[in-house]
Write a structure and sequence with these properties.
The complex is a heterodimer of chains A (828) and B (445). Helices cover 38% and strands 12% of the residues of chain A. Chain A has 828 residues and is an alpha/beta fold. Chain A folds into 3 domains: 383 residues, Rossmann fold (3-Layer(aba) Sandwich); 198 residues, Thiamin diphosphate (ThDP)-binding fold, Pyr/PP domains (Rossmann fold, 3-Layer(aba) Sandwich), CATH 3.40.50.970; 150 residues, Rossmann fold (3-Layer(aba) Sandwich). Chain A has a 7-stranded mixed β-sheet, sandwiched between helices. In chain A, helix 26 links the parallel strand 21 and strand 22. The two termini of chain A are 43 Å apart. Chain B has 445 residues and is an alpha+beta fold. Chain B folds into 3 domains: 94 residues, OB fold (Dihydrolipoamide Acetyltransferase, E2P) (Beta Barrel); 110 residues, no CATH class; 211 residues, Chloramphenicol Acetyltransferase. Chain B is built from 12 helices and 18 strands. Chain B has a 6-stranded mixed β-sheet with strand order 9-18-17-16-12-15. In chain B, strands 1-8-6-3 form a 4-stranded antiparallel β-sheet, with helices on one face. Classes of the chains: A alpha/beta (828), B alpha+beta (445). At the A-B interface, helix 27 of A face helix 3 of B.
Amino acid sequence: MPKSQYVDPGKAFESGYIHFEDIPVCQYNKTLAEEKKIYTKDDFLRIYRDMAIIREFETMLNDVKTKSNYNGVEYNNPGPAHLSIGQEASAVGEAYCLDINDFSFGSHRSHGEILAKGLSSIHKLTDEEVYDIMKEFLGGSVLSVVEKHMNGGGNVKELAINFLLYGALAEIFARKTGFNRGLGGSMHAFFIPFGLMPNNAIVGASAPIALGAALYKRANHKKGIIISNCGDGATGRGPVLESLNFASMDQITKLWGMDGKFSSDGMPILFNVFNNHYGMGGQTRGETMGFDMVARLGAGFNPSQMHAERVNGYDPLAVIDAVSRKKELLIQGKGPALLDVVTYRVSGHSPSDSSTYRTAEEIEAWKAADPIVAFKNKLVGGKIATESEIAKLHEDITARMTEIMKLAINDEISPRMDLNKEPDAISSIMFSNEKRVSMEPEREAEMLLPKDECPRVKEIKGKIRTATDANGKPVSKMKMYNICDGLFEPIIDKFYDDATLVAYGEDNRDWGGAFGVYKKMTEAVPYHRFFNSPISESAIVGSAVGYAMCGGRAIVELMYADFIGCAGDEIFNQMAKWQAMSAGILKMPITLRVSVGSKYGAQHSQDWTALCSHIPGLKVVFPATPADAKGLMTSALDGTDPVVFFESQRIYGIGEQFMKDGVPEGHYEIPFGEPDIKREGKDVTILTIGAVLYRALDAAKILEEKYGVSAEIIDARSIVPFNYEKVIESVKKTGKILLVGDACERNSVMRDMASNITEMCFDYLDGPPVVVGSRNWITPAFELESHFFPQADWIIDALHEKIMPLPGHVAKTNFTNIEKVERAKKGL
Amino acid sequence: MATLVIMPRQGQSVESCIITAFNVKVGDEVKKGDTLFSYETDKSSFDEPSPEDGKVLAIFKEEGDDVPCLENVLVLGADGEDISALVAASATQEEAAAPAAVEAAPAAQPEKAAAVEAPAATDVKVSGAISPRARLLAEKTHVDLLKATPTGPDGRIIERDVQRLCDLGLTVSPAAKDGYTAAVEGTGINGKVVLADLNAPAAPAAAAEASVDAPEYEDVKLPNIRKVIAKSMHQSLSTMAQLTLNTSFDASKLLALRASLKAGAEKMGLANITLNDMVLFAVSKVLLSHKDLNAHYLDDTMRYFKNVNIGIAVDTPRGLMVPTVFASNKLSLNDLSREAKAVITEAQNGTINPDKLKGASFTVTNLGSLGIESFTPVINPPQTGILGVCGITRRVKEVDGEDVTYPAMGLSLTFDHRALDGAPAAKFLKELCFALENFDLLMTK
């Protein structure tokens, strides 16, 4: 809601019509003579060769899957093989136009895309460049295999082709010598140095990631465009549609330029749909979608209709023609663009596909139109190549593929990761654990004001950094440094320190974030680094993944933790997994801010720390004091790992009660994983997660004053990672522990920790670790919340009923086993 | 060659001793016979002499430690000798057996390393639930879990319940642990349940219901011996049917004889024979023909002794003790006198072998020197009788129609009416009086 753009009621109700431009449908009609002027014989033959290599590669995989034998070589591959036989012309046509600065992202059916772009890159690079890339990659471990066994007769380009085929196949066969040490596999094979970015087993998941890569190019002024490949089936996915919209949003061309200070270019991304007519077995045109043709979608997203076009994907030259025109548009700043590349998958969705959804006639008809045969006929008929030249080419490819396969299945040459010998091989890549002040230190950050002139920085300077003044009197809310300030300080510092940092989410910019963390930041940070996103949680998180993958750092916000569900795949499958799935090649410096609500009922009040901490690969923190908010945000932003950063709306305005000298000024870092003792005691330990810290303090006060029980309160602060040592020490001392958090009790983080503490401290326990969480209900209205969220007296009751009866105490709540059993029976 | 000095076993009934003082420290040169350390049981104290000349190379215990018998206390040897194996062995012993005395601060904050390596389960059988922490503390402190009052949820024994046992000093010795299944009152140091208690008749368990609030009075712990006396006296009176018969006899001859014995003692090489010795002698001789009084009453059995093991009640600085002279009926007056003197002195000095403090078949107690004319002695269970010897008063009796005075010595016999009736008891007294009045004849027997 920028004030610069006036929403005029007069204009809003003005009458008129929406005009659409015609969307070209298979309009390519160049003659052979025209084409001969564009392409040399080598070009023609290379296009043919690349298609033939892809066809043979997938034929081999199909034979291995269906017959466990390719060309006389036996092998059994239990992993997946989603083939794209029939789609080779589309892949090769697209790749023909791309260089290594152009990043392409794809689907689970991407073998063709990888090989096509790889082959194209090898052709375009010099011998030295391509050799250096191979030598650098994973310490030359892939190259050394190929160099030793299939060196291409001393020809670097031939060696590179072997390298590409071997690296991809070894990856598909889960070999340590694969492009990602076998950790990505068939559906996720990629090779970053050629601009071959991760492909994705989740249909449509690459779209927001590709969008983020485009944002990275756009915000950091990097060369190249982004190709977001997907199938027609994926266009039914929310994240894809969100990404089409996100890439098309007006502000990119209208606001990000800031009156000529910065670029007004559109998003440099081509959404390329390989339209093979089926999403697995569902027919998009005529059954599961209503667009008739994918290209029509473009008209729905922006007035330029995303320059949408439908092309014949069975003709590589038609595809080259279309993709090169779109690339030109993107370079001119007119993106985004959309291509509907019509093709067909002759092979099944997977080798187990019995094609119950289509007729044999249909398949035969498409086989008859085989793009490779058609292109061969064109070359032979047009006297560009002879039959025998083509036959020799096929012979070479088959021989090469057989050798590659023998190499990739040789357990000596291509071993699998040995987790007996290297038990930490996967552990060591789950997190990158690096500390990098800037992801691109050599570049200066684009900002609008010097830091000390930033209005918010000036405002915070005048604030008192403790909750009470020197006389112990509470500081007024207006003057008190609070959690919002604790979050803001490291964020604004990072904007100045790291040129790549971007922050976005719903209502981030002018509003200052729904809860004021970014208040008065608009004046200091340019639009392209700090903007309002559409209400598109998948695209918000997914784009951050793509942004980080390319080398940038992002802070994205979901406003309410409850919206984690809207970005479930992006958080749980993308953000969490790519560091390890890339064998540690990719870094993922993302801080995902989510806020646990209060007063807003069932869909705006949930603490979902358990969901996030359950997924390997995410770091999860939940500070509850201004100093901890600052220290942990500093660590999150200095790190290279994905962090889900929980905040609580109940305590944004709270001041610092624990650090006597107040929240430290300047750089202040709290390492992840270290819980903090907020109150020392000797009789019982209370471990808290998040805002419930303050209720535990209330309980501790009552325990001390009324029952003479001294409670030690430990604030977990971090959930993943988590160092239990301090807790164990405390439990050894007290023998009793209560774990308290605002999350629903069942399967909460408290439950997990309680179970671990039972194992670690069994002999020291004087009673079972007892969890005090919210009821397993919906969150009721604010007025009823005291029946839902843990209260101070619940903590005392739980101690009394489960661990150590307190003389004279009368419990108001029921923590007994009988009650627990009854509740569990009812699913409560 | 290094020499290990162990905690000696002072009698079969002793399970552990408390080291009261070390006279040496590591590095001291000692001569054979020098006192290395002093220690005590609940009844006696002892000095441990050095078995040889040498240097103190290591000391494993501290003053105040309650050390199980036969456990290593220190090492003597030559300078620079390698004693690492002995030290290691001693450390193992320490882990396996009883650690410090009960008074040692109970582990409210268990020490990390020790606690981590502590063995898993305790051997004490408990019927109810107990928290792992409470169990660990119980193991370290050897408290008597059977006396715990559970205050945790669902009757679980929790740390504070064990802590209370520690505070009350209710413990079980390592030796008694295995056989200990039902709560009994302990007679060991600080009320520790020891092996001996397991066979003793069950006494009502001490109520462990001490108030948690700070009391308005001062609790001073009873010395062990007082507890032992209190217990056996109370048990005596509460479980027996005791009654006392009083009589006296003419002690003229006895006094005359004693005077002549005294006069001739040096010449004859006799001991300093006292009136009490003479009473002991008479009792020893007469009792053999009154077997119901030379016996132990054991619920459904009577244990009759073939000899007289005479117990002598002695007032000692530590309280009442009853050392025994075994087979006193076989001893001459002179020998009996020497023997009695020896055990009395030992009891008074606290150096008596604890085995000599039990096993008596009948007891003689003498309050005569304190001017008591008659009293009701309390039987030492499971004995069936005790003879109280009173002072000598002048009495009048008619001799040939004339009132003459004579020295009368009072005797008070308490007997257990469960074991025998009044008449046999009276007959014993009568016979005893005759024997004492005709002591010269008795001596010839």
